[in-house]
Write a sequence for this structure.
C-alpha cells in the first residue's frame, strides 16, 4: 500500500511520508470544516434550502479536493468560497434573480474558467493585475464578510431597527426618509449578541494558541452554549442517511437556470464571479506555494494550469449540484504547516468531508444559530484584512484604486462594485499620471471589461 502511494504521490521526492500527509490532511479538514455550517447558512438568504445545500457543499468540497489531490498532486483543499457565496446570496439580491438563475451564473462562470484555462489566458489575465490590487480584493472581501457577521449576530443593526414608522418619517414623495446614520450598535440587552461576542473572543483565543480547527471549535462551543441557554435547538439525531428526505439533492441538483442568465445585462454578474474566482485562486495558490516551498525561482507556481483546471471543474460542478463558486482554500496552509506536501493530504481531507455526510443532524442546528456562525465570518475577515500590509500606499497610483476597491465593496454592500471600480480606475489613473507603460495589455483588457460593468451593466 505504501509503495503504491509513493509511486502515485512521489512522497520521498517531496520530503514527506504517509503519516505526515495524513496528519496534514486531517488538520486542513478540521480548520476549514466550518464551511459546512456557514456556506448553507449564507446561501439560505438566496432561497436555497439548507438541507440540500449542506449536502451540495460537502460533495463539492470532496469532489474538488479529491481532484486536486489525484490530478494536481497538491496539498490544497477546495470548497465553496467565502465571499463568492455572499455575492450570490446578497450581492445579486437587488437584481431579482431566482436562486436557480444564480446557480446558472456559477455554472457559466465555471465554463468560462475552463475554456480560458485551457487556452492559457487565465494565468495571463491574473499576472496583469498589480500586487496592490490583488491584495485590496482580499481586504475588501474580508471587511465585507466581517460586516455581514456583525449584522447577522446583531452586534450592529440598521439605524431604523426598532423605530416606529412615525419616528422614521418620510420624504415629500412618500418614501421613507434616509437615516442620518446607516447602522448603529445592536441591542446589547439581547443575550444572543453577547453570546456572539463571547464566541468571537473564544475563536480569537483558540487561534492565538494555534489550536487546530479554532473556528469550528468556536462555532460548536458557542452553539452548545446557546442551546443550553435556551437560544437554540438540540440535534434531533446523531446520524442520518444522506441523499434521502430533507438531505435529498433533488431540490437543488441540476436545477440551475442557464437560459435565464444569458442576457447582455447580466454579463457583469458572470464577469464578477470570473474575476473574483480566478483572483482568489491565484492568490491562494501563490500563498500556499510559498508556505510549502513549491514556488520556482521566479516566484511562480509550477504547473499552475493543473490546480487552475481543478478549480474550473469544481466551479462547474458547484453550479450543477447546487452551491456557490468553489476554489482553493487558504486554510490549507494549516495542513502545510503540519508538513503536508503532496496530494495525499488532499485525498485525506476529501475523505473526511465525505464522512460528514452521515453526521448531518449534528450540523443542522448550528446553521440556524446566527450567534454561532456569525463570529466565524468576522474571524475570517480578520485573517483576510491582513493583506492590507501588501498594498503600496506610498504610490498613489497603486493606493487610490486599491482604496476605492475596499471602500466600495464595504460601503455599497456589494463586492462587484468595489472590484470592478478598482480595476477600471487603475489603468485610467496610470494613464493620467503619465505612466501608462506600467499597465500591460491584460490590465487594459480587464479595465475595459470592468468599465462596461458601469456603462451597460445593472450596477447595484
Amino acid at each position: 500500500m505504501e509503495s503504491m502511494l509513493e509511486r502515485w504521490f512521489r512522497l520521498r521526492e517531496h520530503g514527506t511520508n504517509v503519516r505526515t500527509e495524513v496528519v496534514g490532511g486531517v488538520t486542513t479538514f478540521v480548520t476549514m470544516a466550518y464551511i459546512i455550517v456557514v456556506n448553507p447558512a449564507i446561501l439560505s438568504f438566496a432561497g436555497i434550502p439548507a438541507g440540500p445545500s449542506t449536502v451540495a457543499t460537502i460533495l463539492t468540497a470532496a469532489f474538488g479536493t479529491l481532484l486536486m489531490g489525484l490530478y494536481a498532486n497538491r496539498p490544497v483543499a477546495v470548497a465553496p468560497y467565502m465571499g463568492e457565496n455572499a455575492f450570490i446570496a446578497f450581492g445579486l439580491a437587488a437584481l431579482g434573480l431566482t436562486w436557480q438563475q444564480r446557480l446558472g451564473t456559477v455554472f457559466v462562470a465555471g465554463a468560462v474558467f475552463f475554456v480560458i484555462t485551457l487556452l492559457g489566458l487565465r494565468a495571463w489575465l491574473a499576472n496583469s493585475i498589480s500586487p496592490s490590487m490583488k491584495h485590496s480584493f482580499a481586504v475588501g472581501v474580508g471587511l465585507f464578510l466581517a460586516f455581514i457577521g456583525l449584522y447577522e449576530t446583531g452586534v450592529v443593526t440598521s439605524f431604523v431597527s426598532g423605530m416606529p414608522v412615525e419616528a422614521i418619517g418620510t420624504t415629500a414623495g412618500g418614501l421613507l426618509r434616509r437615516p442620518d446614520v446607516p447602522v448603529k450598535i445592536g441591542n446589547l440587552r439581547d443575550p444572543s449578541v453577547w453570546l456572539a461576542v463571547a464566541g468571537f473572543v473564544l475563536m480569537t483565543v483558540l487561534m492565538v494558541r494555534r489550536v487546530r480547527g479554532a473556528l469550528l471549535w468556536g462555532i460548536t462551543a458557542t452553539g452548545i452554549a446557546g442551546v443550553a441557554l435556551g437560544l437554540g435547538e438540540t440535534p434531533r439525531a446523531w446520524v442520518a442517511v444522506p441523499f434521502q428526505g430533507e438531505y435529498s439533492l433533488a431540490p437543488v441538483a441540476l436545477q440551475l437556470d442557464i437560459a435565464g442568465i444569458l442576457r447582455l445585462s447580466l454579463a457583469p454578474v458572470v464577469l464578477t464571479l470570473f474575476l473574483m474566482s480566478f483572483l482568489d485562486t491565484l492568490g491562494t495558490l501563490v500563498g500556499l506555494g510559498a508556505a510549502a516551498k513549491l514556488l520556482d525561482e521566479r516566484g511562480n507556481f509550477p504547473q499552475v494550469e493543473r490546480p487552475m483546471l481543478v478549480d474550473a471543474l469544481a466551479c462547474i460542478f458547484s453550479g450543477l449540484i447546487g452551491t456557490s463558486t468553489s476554489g482553493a482554500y487558504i486554510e490549507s496552509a494549516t495542513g502545510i504547516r503540519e508538513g503536508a506536501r503532496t496530494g495525499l493530504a488532499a485525498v485525506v481531507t476529501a475523505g473526511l468531508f465525505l464522512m460528514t455526510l452521515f453526521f448531518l443532524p449534528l450540523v443542522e442546528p448550528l446553521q440556524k444559530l446566527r450567534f454561532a456562525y456569525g463570529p466565524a465570518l468576522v474571524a475570517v475577515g480578520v485573517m483576510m484584512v491582513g493583506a492590507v500590509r501588501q498594498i503600496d500606499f506610498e504610490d498613489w497610483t497603486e493606493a487610490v484604486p486599491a482604496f476605492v476597491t475596499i471602500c466600495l465593496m464595504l460601503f455599497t454592500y456589494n463586492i462587484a462594485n468595489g472590484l470592478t471600480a478598482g480595476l477600471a480606475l487603475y489603468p485610467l489613473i496610470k494613464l493620467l499620471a503619465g505612466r501608462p507603460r506600467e499597465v500591460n495589455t491584460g490590465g487594459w483588457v480587464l479595465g475595459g471589461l470592468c468599465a462596461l460593468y458601469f456603462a451597460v451593466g445593472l450596477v447595484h
